Structure formats: structure tokens, C-alpha cells
Amino acid sequence: MKFDPRTLRDAFGAFLTGVTVVTTVNDEGDPIGFTANSFTSVSLDPPLLLVCLAKTSRNYAVLTGARGFGVNILSEDQKGVSNTFARPVEDRFATVDWRKGPNGAPVFADVAAWFDCSTHDVVDAGDHVILIGRVEGFDNSGKTGLGYARGGYFTPTLADKSLLASVDGGLLLGAVAVRNGEILLVEDGMGGWTLPFVEKDESDGLEALERYVAEETGLAVQTGLLYSVYEDTATGRQHVVYRAELGEGPLKNGAFFPIQSPPLAAIPDSAVRDIVRRYGAESPFGNFGIYFGNQEKGRVHAVAVKG
Ligand SMILES: Cc1cc2nc3c(=O)[nH]c(=O)nc-3n(C[C@H](O)[C@H](O)[C@H](O)COP(=O)(O)O)c2cc1C
User: Fold this and answer.
1) What is the domain range of residue 236?
2) Which of 15, 34, 155 to mutate to test the pocket of ligand 1 (most atoms within 8 A of CB)?
């Protein structure tokens, strides 16, 4: 069967992906790299990943002959980096902040995550080769990744942010903030625990939540995707809850509890209790849904996001 390549490509493009920049160094020691959305995680043990490289790439010989390569998973605000590494720019590395990873491949600052790999296998596959890498080192910043679908970029949290900024006051912003398998709860002032919530002013958006959680905890905060939207029918207040990751360091206020066994009986607010319980149930599978409703009744909409 022979298909029109353009039509086939468009159909492949229906699959939503993230965006990566694959890097290595050439024989002269110069960094090289190109934009790729064909990244897939392959195996945890041994730790393997893959990316598909076009045989027409100017970097084909270097990448297939290299002893390793890096994969930089771009974050939402790195659209420009993606474009630079997909176009015939003279010095693609001039515009990014990079350094050598533990295995020697260039890794970028401000990415969602990076993996530095040794070359495990190079598999011939039609007009591409499949580069299979064994992860020798990685870092995960917690930032939300840049999305790509049908030839265009999308930015999941940035879209939320601008939407939020346009909503008038009266909103409470909350966070399901986690670190190393534990969830942050704060004192509710009445002897119980709750999630951190802050009132959104007319002028600010999601930054209000980041600022508040950072001040309360004394830790670095990275807000991620939307987790729950509900109205407390008793108070008439809207609540918008985001997932967040907290950085290392001592905690100033509140306490961390295991995500799988939070102190549910000590969380008096039923909506907060349901959020904490649902997060514990969803996190082993990474299939976080988004809840829309009021504090008693609503629906969880499944969004398939790998944890
Ligand atoms: C979002 C996006 C994803 C891409 N994914 C791939 C890919 O997975 N594999 C590939 O070989 N090229 C991919 N490309 C195209 C290359 O980035 C592009 O052809 C680049 O100029 C190759 O550079 P080089 O010839 O210097 O290697 C992608 C481009 C974009 C914009």
C-alpha cells in the first residue's frame, strides 16, 4: 500500500505529544541538536528511551555514530527553543543556556526534564532510524511540558493562567502540593488539616498561588495542571485547585503526609478530603482526572497524563 506522505503525516500528527531537543557532541566537540517529538519512554529496568531520527538529518552520521545523546523535554515557555532547533539556524546553541550532562551530552536549563543517555541500540526503520538510549543521568524540574498537536504548539498551564487572570475576584486558589511521595497539608486554624488556599485578587492569576505557597512553606513551588474546580454551595465560593511540586529543604509551615495514607479523619472540609483521597487513589497510576462540580456532587473528567 502506498499512501500520500502528506496525508499520512497529518494523520500521525493527530497524536498529541510533547517536544524534545535531542543533542550530542560531534568529533570536534561542538554541540549539535535537533527538535524531535518522536520521543517515547521504553523501559524502567533497564532505563531505556527512544527517539526517531530522519535519515535526511544533517546530524545523521554524528548521532548514529555517537556514544550517547541527550533528550531535553521542553517546558511550556520554550516554544522558541523548539523552533530554533527545527530550523537551519547557524548556531542553534547560541540562544540556549546549556551545559554538559553526566554522560557528556548537552542538557538545557529550564526544561521540564532532561535525560543523558549512552547509545543502547540504533535500529533501522524505513526513512528514519530509532535511537535507543540508556539513561545514565536525568533531572526532572516539575515544570509542565510544551505540547504539540496537528502541527501546532499548546501550553496547558499557560492557557489556564491567562484564563484565570481574566476572571474577577472571589476565587480561592488551592494546591495539591507534593514532594517525594508526600502531600502538603496546612493547619486550618480549628485543629484540623486542609490544603493551602489563597484568595485571588482581581489583578493576579496563578502567581498568587505560587507566591502564597512559597511563602507558607519556604520552598520552591512549581504549579502544574488543573486538578479540581468546585463551588462550595454553603459559602458560594469558587475553588480552583492545581497540582504543584515542592522543592527540597526544610518546611516552614504545615506538614508532609504520605500520599497513600493521609490523615483523612483530621480533614474536616469534605471537598478537601475528597481531593486528598482522590489524589492518593490516582497517583500510583498517574491517571489524574479533573473534577468539576460542587463540594458534594460533580464529575471527574479523565485526562491521561503520565505521572
Ligand atoms: C515539533 C517538531 C517535532 C519534530 N520531530 C522530529 C523527529 O522526531 N525526528 C526528526 O528526525 N525530525 C523531527 N523534526 C524535524 C527536525 O527538527 C528538523 O528537520 C531539523 O531541522 C533537523 O535538523 P538537522 O538536519 O540539523 O538534524 C521535528 C520538528 C518539529 C518542529
Assistant:
1) 156-302
2) 34
Give the helix/strand (H/E) hosting 230. strand 221-232
CA 98 to CA 70: how far, in whole Å?
12
Last residue of a domain, one of 136, 154, 172: 154
pLDDT tens string 226-275: 899 888 877 778 899 999 999 999 999 999 999 999 999 999 999 999 99
**224 and 97, same domain (yes or no):** no
Instruction: Using a cut of 0.85, tell me whether the model's pTM lies above it.
Output: no
Q: Is 54 in the pocket of ligand 1 (CB under 6 A)?
A: yes
pLDDT at 84 over 70: yes
Q: Which of 35, 90, 128, 146 to mutate to test the pocket of ligand 1 (most atoms within 8 A of CB)?
A: 35
User: Amino acid identity of 93?
Assistant: F
Output b/e per residue, 52-79; b: 16+ Cβ within 10 A: bbeeebebeebbbebebbbbbbbbbebb
Can you tell me the distance from the alpha carbon of 186 to that of 59, in angstroms, rounded to the nearest whole number? 51
Rounded distance between C-alpha atoms, residue 76 and residue 88, angstroms:
22
Q: Which of 130, 154, 178 is the last residue of a domain?
A: 154
Residues 6+ apart with CB under 8 A from 215: none
CA of 183 to the centre of ligand 1 (A): 39
Question: Taking phi first (over 0 means left), then psi (-120 to 50 degrees means alpha), and beta for anything else, what does residue 10 get?
Answer: alpha
Residue 277 has pLDDT above 90, yes or no: yes
The pLDDT of residue 296 is above 80? no
DSSP bridge partners of 230:
239, 293
The tens digit of pLDDT for each residue in 20-61 reads 999 999 999 999 999 999 999 999 999 999 999 999 999 999
Q: What are phi and psi for residue 114, nearest 5 degrees? A: -135, 155
